[in-house]
Amino acid sequence: MTIHTSIDPAEVERFSRIAAEWWDPKGKFAPLHKFNPTRLSFIRDQALHRFGRDPAARRPFEGLRLLDIGCGGGLLSEPMSRLGFTVVGVDASERNIGTASAHAAEVGVTVDYRCSTAEALLAAGEAFDVILNMEVIEHVADPGQFLRDCAAMLRPATPEKPGGLMIVATLNRTLKAFALAKVGAEYILRWLPVGTHDWSKFLKPDELRGFLADQPVAVDGPYGVVFDPLSGRWSQSHDAEVNYMMTVARPPASR
Question: Is the CB of residue 21 less than 8 Å from the CB of residue 29?
C-alpha cells in the first residue's frame, strides 16, 4: 500500500542544517524576523474578526486551538501562545522542533511542539480553530494534498462558534517573484541561502483556489505583502505579484 506523505526529504534536510539559526535576527532567517510583524498583524486581525474577540484584551484568543504547521523554530508559535491560543507547533525536522522547544522553555512560553506531518495529524483526528500555513506549502512534495489535509482539520462551524480559519502565505510564480525572491534575495542581496526556494514550486493564487475547489471552505485573497528597501520594512499591499496571503474558512453553520 502506498502511504501518502507531504514530506520532501531534501527540503527537510535543507532547513535542518540551519535549524540553530532560527532565533538569530541577523542570521539566515533575518528576512523572516523582518517579515514577522506584518504576518502577526494580519493573523491577529483576521482571527479577531472571525471569532469576534476583544482587540483590547491581553490574551484575546483564550479557548481557541491553533496549529502552526511547518513551524520551524517557532517564530509564529510563541507570539500566538502569548495571545492566548493553545498552540500545537508541528515540523518534519527534528532539529527544528528541538530548537523551537529549547527556545520556548528558555523564555517561558507554552507550545506543544511535535515532529510530525499534516497527514499524521489528520489521521489522528486532530481539529483546530486556526491553522497557520505560512511559507511552507512551496516546500512540500504534494502541495494540493497538503493543503486539503490542512483544510480538513479546520473545525466545522456550530451555532455557537464559527468554523475554523486557515491562513496561507506563500510566493507567487511570476517573473517578478523570480527576479526578487529568487535571484535578488538569494544571489544578489544574499538575504537567503542559495537554494532556499525553487521558483517552479511557487504557486499562483488561482492554483491554491483550485486545490480546494471541492472542499467545504471559502477562500479569500490574495492579500499582497511587499518589502520597502528604503525603510527595511514589510507591509500589506494590493501587490500580490511576489508574496501574498490567503484565508481559508469553514462556512457558517446551517440554521
Answer: yes
| 84 conformational bin, left if phi > 0, alpha if psi -120 to 50, beta if neither | left
How would you list the strands of the sheet with 165-171, edge to edge? 112-115, 86-91, 65-69, 130-134, 165-171, 243-249, 218-228, 233-237
Name the DSSP letter for residue 139. Answer: G
pLDDT digits (tens, 9 = 90+) for 161-181: 899 999 999 999 988 877 766
Neighbours of 71 (CB within 10 A): 28
pLDDT band for position 1 (cuts 50, 70, 90):
very low
CA separation, residue 83 to residues 56, 64, 112, 128, 179 (Å): 11, 10, 15, 16, 36
CA distance 9 to 239: 33
* Measured CA angle at 91 (ends 144, 29), to 5 deg: 100
Using CA atoms, how far apart are residues 149 and 101, in angstroms rounded to an integer?
Answer: 25
Whether the model clears a pTM of 0.85, i.e. scores above it, the answer is: yes
The dihedral over CA atoms of 53, 153, 203, 252, expressed in degrees to the nearest 10, equals: -50
